[in-house]
Amino acid sequence: MKMLVVDCCIRGEESRTKKLYEAFLENISGDYNVEILNLNHENLAPVTREEIYERELRIKKGEKDSPVFRYANQFKAADVIVIAAPYWDLSFPSLLKVYLEHVAIVGITFGYEESGSVGYCHGDKIVYLSTCGGYIEGRHLGAEYVREFAQMLGIREFTSFTVEGLDIDPLKAEEILQDGIYRMKSEISL
Fold first, then answer.
1. Is the pLDDT of residue 181 over 90?
2. Which of 42, 48, 143, 181 is the Cys-Cys partner for 160 at CB 3.0 to 4.6 Å?
């Protein structure tokens, strides 16, 4: 089975969210071919009008394997998708939104029918992992956005886990993170 890990951990190796998703990967029990896409290393930019026209033209020509659709095809082919992004300005870093714009392509990952939009993704599950400095009491707008995004693309199972309160007392941050990792391992399994 294919697992795509979308790493949007802006702080790189210092990222507590990265530590969380690495612990998650250590805990998986299935036979997964894991591919990690580190968004910090990608040359992502917001989608332009010209790019939208190019996409539409390639779709009309049947060129769905074009490099233009790299992210969409990669996402579509994954059986399980793990998205790791810190809680950032009420949701997630803008880099993740830019990436998702490159994934959501009519004719590749979703389409329209009379009844509404229909998802074309093969995956059956998205796991969204996050950390935040304060307490958000379950109100993670980034997680909610990704949940709705997943449904639009046809992925019905969504799991979210956030470790909160990491910046309240810096002396307890590592202890809180390790406790969160322990809880995550008992709550989320693959």
1. yes
2. 143
pLDDT digits (tens, 9 = 90+) for 147-177: 999 999 999 999 999 999 999 999 999 999 9
pLDDT class of 132 with cuts at 50, 70, 90: very high
> What's the rounded Cα separation, in Å, for the pair 110 and 69?
13
The token pair at 172 is: 């307890």
Sheet bearing 80-84, strands edge to edge: 33-38, 2-7, 80-84, 125-131, 157-163
User: Which string of DSSP letters, residue by residue, matches 59-111?
Assistant: HHTT-TTSGGGHHHHHHHH-SEEEEE---BTTB--HHHHHHHHHH--BTTTEE
Q: Is the pLDDT of residue 72 over 90?
A: yes
Q: Are strands 125-131 and 33-38 parallel, antiparallel or unpaired?
A: unpaired
Compute the average pLDDT of residues 40-53: 96
With tokens 């202890």, the residue in question is 175
* pTM for this predicted structure: 0.95
- 84 forms beta bridges with 7, 129
Number of alpha carbons in the 13 Å side-chain half-sphere of residue 34: 18
Cβ(84)–Cβ(18) below 8 Å? yes
How far apart are alpha carbons 62 and 103 in whole angstroms?
17
